[in-house]
Amino acid sequence: MRLLHTSDWHLGRSLHRVSMLEAQAAFLDHLVETVRDRGIDAVLVAGDIYDRAVPPLAAVELYDRALHRLADAGVPTVMISGNHDSARRLGVGAGLLGRAGIHLRTDPAGCGTPVLLSDAHGEVACYGLPYLEPALVKDEFRTERTHHEAVIGAALDRVRADLADRPRATRSVVLAHAFVAGGEPSDSERDITVGGMSAVPAGIFHGVDYVALGHLHGCQTVTERLRYSGSPLAYSFSEANHRKTMWIVDLGPRGEISAERVDCPVPRPLARLRGTLAELLEDPALDRHTDSFVEATLTDPARPAEPMARLTERFPHTLSLVFAPERDPAGETMSYAERIGGRGDQEIAEDFVAHVRGGSGPDEREREVLRDAFDGVRVGEAVRESAGRSAR
Question: Least C-beta-crowded within 10 Å: which of 4, 293, 319, 338?
Answer without folding.
Answer: 338
